[in-house]
Amino acid sequence: MNNKIVFITGASSGIGAACAKVFADAGAKLILAARRNERLQELVEKLNLKPSEFYLLELDVRDRKTVESAISSLPSEWSAIDVLINNAGLSRGLDKLYQADFQDWEEMIDTNIKGLLYMTRYIVPGMVSRGTGHVINIGSIAGHQTYPGGNVYCGTKAAVKSISEGLKQDLLGSPVRVTSVDPGLVETEFSEVRFHGDRDRAKKVYQGMTPLTPDDVADVVFFCATRPIHVNINDVILMPTEQASATLVHRQG
């Protein structure tokens, strides 16, 4: 990965920040994108990156025009993206479908599906023309198994699964690779965002068990990205040892 250009969305925290660390340690050059620019600044300071090793983008992937402008305006030395990690995503609420908040739906669909599509559409053509590249989408066990209250979130992650499979088919004959990394319970800001900042409720999601860490997921992403060029890992499902499915979790006490 030395001097490879890795573009990470949702890089300001959680899995995105963990991916930034593991790829930076391997000598990659990072394009880090997120809505919270101050968190990106803190991340590059924490990683002790030199100015030549990173490029920051304050970016909301839901805004297609902004995404288009950000990609087309990249300096020439940053435009040949080798790896795109579509990590930006979120969940909102656990309401029954017929009682849910419309705004929660919009935010999940716009971020998890449309944002991923925008990034892919503007970056993959360059990979195809250069004859090299790898798209890694951060999916979820929710894309494989629907759980109570998950309805729309699970639908968006099922879409990520289908989009990843469809993109792989469309790229057949091209050396550009596509991978979906689909975790179970990972302790990040995910649950806090889902419950609109209710930290006590968010903590209960991981109570009595040992969830995955963002570093665990980043390790798998890095493994997928560093296989020989003739190897494409299509899909990886990883879960804590104490989780057997989207709904089956063993908790102590």
UniProtKB/TrEMBL annotation:
InterPro entries: NAD(P)-bd_dom_sf (IPR036291), SDR_fam (IPR002347). The keyword DNA repair does not apply. GO terms for molecular function: oxidoreductase activity, acting on the CH-OH group of donors, NAD or NADP as acceptor. The keyword Nucleotidyltransferase does not apply. It comes from the Bacteria. Keywords: Oxidoreductase. PANTHER family: ALCOHOL DEHYDROGENASE. Belongs to the short-chain dehydrogenases/reductases (SDR) family. This is NAD(P)-dependent oxidoreductase.
